[in-house]
Give the backbone structure.
Amino acid sequence: MTLAINIIGSFAIMLFSGLFVGVSALDERWMLFLRVGLCGGFTTFSTFSMEALRFLEQGNMTMAAVYVSLSCVSCLAAAFLGEIASAAILSRPN
């Protein structure tokens, strides 16, 4: 479940960043709230770390490596897709 939440949060943070980067009317504090507060509060790096550590403590090196790799790759991919989605939304005619 942590992996899914972190993927969604990675997508959302880049979507918000892309959609609101050029909006001068949006106060920087709101951007901070959306990115760090909302997305940062939704995702949970500490839980990810705890879960990866549990795999290591149980001697399950393969699962730890898969979990960490999958988390990093999928969250980066989701962030990239969020950036693409925001660009697509901004470029479509009204």
About this structure: The helical segments are 2-20, 28-42, 45-57, 61-91. The mean pLDDT is 87.
